[in-house]
Amino acid sequence: xxxxxxxxxxxxxxxxxxxxxxxxxxxxxxTVSENMWEWAKxxxxxxxxxxxxxxxxDATDLVFMEAELNRLxxxxxxxxxxxxxxxxxxxxxxxxxxxxxxHIPAGDLLKMIPKGDG
Length: 118
What we know:
Elements (H helix, E strand, L loop, with lengths): L1 H26 L8 H9 L5 E9 L3 H13 L3 E8 L2 E9 L9 H7 L6
């Protein structure tokens, strides 16, 4: 009986955590589903996923290039490759997709998220 109570308590805490994170996503201005569980299903797909961006900058304007790279770094973009194109540099950037649920164990989430269309 104690094990059953512990499982129920864990599910409640995790459900409350999902609800808090859902509200945080809404409050941040992100476009989210009206249904918390639909949002959770979408958010889980972002765990471990990457976004990519390619930026070309004039290599002769070092002050601007440095400022732009600092701006991109502040937005969590990381340079993974650079190509030289005459007086330009092409920067290949990546960053992890934002997931609010990434710190909740996947097994716990899968047990909570309703299956199918319901």
